[in-house]
Amino acid sequence: MVLTNEYITQRLTEKFGESISNVEEPYGLLTFEVPKDLNLKVMQFLQDDPDLAFRFLTDLCGVHYPDQKGRELAVVYHLHNMAENVRIRMKVFTDVQQPDVFTATSLYQSANWQERETYDFYGINFVGHPNLKRILNVEEMDYFPLRKEYPLEDQTRIDKDDEMFGRGGSI
Amino acid sequence: MSEIIQQEQQHVRLPEGSIGKQTTTLNLGPTHPATHGVFQNILEVDGERIVSAEQTVGYIHRAFEKIAERRPLYQITPLTDRLNYCSAPINNMGWHLTCEKLLGVKTPKRVDYLRVIIMELARISDHLICNSIVGVDTGAFTGFLYVMQYRELIYEIYEEICGSRLTTNIGRIGGFERDFTNTAFEKIERFLKEYPVVLKEFETLFQRNRIFMERTMGTGAIAADRALNYGFTGPNLRATGVDYDVRVTSPYSSYEDFDFEIPVGTTGDNYDRWLVRNQEMWQSLRIIEQAYRKVQEFKGEEATIYHADVPEYYLPKKEDVYTKMEALIWHFKIIMGEIDMPKGEVYQAVEGGNGEVGYYLISDGGRAPFRLHFRRPCFIYYQAFSEISEGAMLSDAIITLSSLNLIAGEMDA
User: Fold this and answer.
1) Which of A57, A59, A80 to mutate to test the interface with B (most CBs of B within 10 A)?
2) Domain that holds residue B335
3) Residue B333 CB neighbour total at 10 angstroms
């Protein structure tokens, strides 16, 4: 049996109905959105179903869309069925005020650090995560640097006298 | 006697609970010759046995994903060098492939084959370091120094093509910045002629070496299902017996034109990882030979193509910029960021030195990516280290660390 994008969509909508939304296929990769309280159920279904069998979590990352009111933060899961070699992308959106998303660590061990990384950069609170603390940044950091409200430092600023790095100063 | 100890202890402020403690806390790293990179392991050891391990990473985090949000595509290539710096060209090519997928650029066959040569050379240089370092950690320094000469030759080939050695910034969107010179081809030929002999000798030094086998067999093992659950890819996954290789499952850069095998192990221990990497080097040599032959077969006009014809994204030659109007316009447009990229989301994976290197790029139509995420295989599989090393001897854990091929640059991004 060939695992086509149509078949996956059909199976998902059969099971979850209207909850599966924004189904797209950018560059051939099936992408869909699920409500944030259903993410584990959908992933569990995708993993357990013998036909679908998406048992490999390739990648998990966050995205910040500051202009989308009420759904500013996204968690993007890339899942892979290695036997059939089919990839899908699942998205979960959440409010920036209360960014709670259930953790996928019970399904995939690999989600552990990737969720910590996502928390570190976007402040997404993975509910039920065994060890949700910063991973790449220092623990004292009090903001989430990959959110769009933190711009990269302007390279042309002149208030900083930093001769060693070629900025300002007398050179 | 105990009275004296008690008296002494009154003046020493020991951390609470440390007197009754049965285990020792040992900091392995962040800068330790045996970790081969900047990352820390806080080990709880009972004698020489590891009770638990906790990893700390992030010492060389450079916020590449954030920096990338301010840069046009071609300026992100140097960032990707610094992920897995042992096989920088693979990362570069992976990034170009991502951009090409987003922009809809189709590369000519000759470019694909040249890229394959470079990527396989990079794979050899990565595996060669990893395997010889495993040798160093088990006490055999000679092999390391011996194969290092050939990494040097690989770096000379890079240098001939792109001008730099470690952080290569090799290639451009659509192809290469310049054609391979004759010297480059001569050096590749020399490598193909000399390296098999050296690799054979290197293999003989380790493969059936009693000391090496006893040090590595059965240590640092992980089962296939656990490895998949932990998100292992690359040689480390193949050592457990899963034949997953991005080059075969989702071929890119015309890998489907080549004839090669995916070596797999069975036990997933340090020895199998070593064997898989070793076999992969032989397979890479096979691929380079085929690719080199294919490149030589191009005749006439075709034999000079080294980039796709995409003036919107490929910087024109500098002499053309000074003499031709059209080239000047394109140069100006590219440099000033006049060309927006299409909106969309792309995920492109390539088989890197130590697993599936993925680029997830979201473009909102601007000049720079809206979001760029690197899937770094090391970062994902390093989590398994505490599970692998629990109950192991400290000296075995060191070998496990090096045979997992952890690259701090890739881990921390």
Assistant:
1) A59
2) 64-412
3) 14
ipTM of the complex, rounded to two decimals: 0.90
Q: Which of B71, B347, B364, B376 to mutate to test the interface with A (most CBs of A within 10 A)?
A: B347
Q: Which regions of chain B are under pLDDT 50? A: none
The residue type found at B375 is: R
Which residues contact residue B78 at a Cβ distance below 8 angstroms, ignoring those fewer than 6 apart?
Answer: B167, B169
Q: What is the pLDDT of residue B338?
A: 80
A–B interface: beta-carbon pairs under 8 A: 88
pLDDT bin (cut points 50, 70, 90) of residue A170 is very low
Is there a domain that residue B7 lies in? Answer: no
Contact A59 B344 (CB under 8 A): no
Does residue A168 surpass a pLDDT of 60?
no
**Is A26 in Cβ contact with B346 (below 8 Å)?**
yes
Count: domains in chain B:
1
Give the number of other CB atoms < 10 A from CB of residue A14: 9
Nearest-CA residue of chain A relative to B356? Answer: A58
CATH number at residue B279: 1.10.645.10
Which class is domain A5-151?
Answer: alpha beta
Look at residue B33 and tell me if it is in a domain: no
pTM of the model: 0.91
pLDDT in tens, A45-56: 999 999 889 999
Instruction: Report the run of H or E that residue A93 belongs to, with start and end.
Output: strand A86-94
Instruction: Please report, as a single letter, which amino acid is at residue B410.
Output: E
